[in-house]
Amino acid sequence: MTTDKKPAVPGNRVVNKRKLEERRRFLRSIILGAAVLGISTLGYIPVASAWRVRMRPPGALEESDFLSSCIKCGQCVQVCPVQAIKLDDIDHGFGVGLPYIDSRSQACDFSCDAVQCILACPTGSLVYKKPVFMPTRNGMRVANPPILLAKEKDPEPTLNIRERTGLARLARPDACLAVQGKGFKGQARGADFKGRMRFIEVDRWKPIPLRDHPFDLQLCDLCVRTCPIKGAISLQPVVDKDGNTRMTPTVHEPCLGCGVCEMICPVESAAIVVDARKGWGA
Question: Quick one: signal sequence residues (predicted)?
């Protein structure tokens, strides 16, 4: 009896096995190479993101000087009474380990009066007054010593700092409750918000959770009534394009960029924000 099947050739199996193994090695090389390239590329991500402007603690030097002088010791973080100061993580490149403030999460409300972070800084990265060889950018220095409302009745009501860290700005006027003519009742940022502030009528020296201080306002003026600096912000009548007069939060020259207005704004996202490192008139 005959059959059409040809006997298997052992050599073909060897060749096929060898080709399969070569293909596997080739694929492993591609995957390994891609992994190495991906890992090495990660090193550039922090460098790229390092150019993002960060809000620094009060009294911070200009960014280039701050980056070169701060030793990332964390002393400013430890003394902040409202824990507004954080340390940058690895994904922030040149800024890794450097102190910054995220105003929306927790603003600096000057609860410490004397600005403890400046006193705690061992290198002069945070200062009350810059050395003469470090010029100040236009608009960063405030015209007059800022008056802290919590100290207004004290013999010396001013803060020692003379330069702003940023400048508040009404970024979304259409979302602002005051502009809409609306009031506000309840907890400014909700029951889950962990931010704290000093309320003089409660305790001058002890900041309390914002959620523990509800409001009942016929017209929302949270950004105005909680601003710690005298004359930094007010509600002003502004005539819109339709000829309607609307009460509008208006930022004035004494603004230091503390971020309290941004933190307390009850709308999401905040109608008023602080631009880090921005000077008056810039």
Answer: none
Backbone angles phi, psi at 271, to 5 degrees: -75, -30
Copy the structure tokens of residue 199.
């309320």
Give how far Cα 29 sits from Cα of 17, 21, 149, Å. Answer: 18, 12, 66
CA separation for the pair 198, 208 (Å, rounded): 6
pLDDT per position as a tens digit, 124-169:
999 999 988 888 888 999 999 999 999 999 999 999 999 999 999 9
Q: For the range 202-209, what are the long-range contacts, defined as Cβ-Cβ under 8 Å and sequence gap of 24 or more?
A: 204/150, 205/111, 207/81, 207/82, 207/109, 207/111
Burial of 61 (0-12, 13-18, 19+ CB in 10 A): buried
Rounded to whole angstroms, the Cα distance separating 254 from 145 reads 8
Q: Is 0.85 surpassed by the pTM of this model?
A: no
What are the helix (H) ranges across 155-235? 222-225
Q: How far, in Å, CA of 170 to CA of 192, rounded?
A: 25
Alpha-carbon span 91 to 193, nearest angstrom: 25
Q: Which of 129, 165, 135 is nearest to 255 (CA)?
A: 165
* Element holding 200 (H helix, E strand): none
Rounded CA separation 10/19 (Å): 15
| 224-255: pLDDT as tens digits | 999 999 999 999 999 888 888 999 999 999 99
Domain range annotation of the chain = 53-131+144-276
The four Cα atoms 178, 100, 279, 49 give a dihedral, to 10 degrees, of -100
Is 214:186 a contact under the CB 8 Å cutoff?
Answer: yes
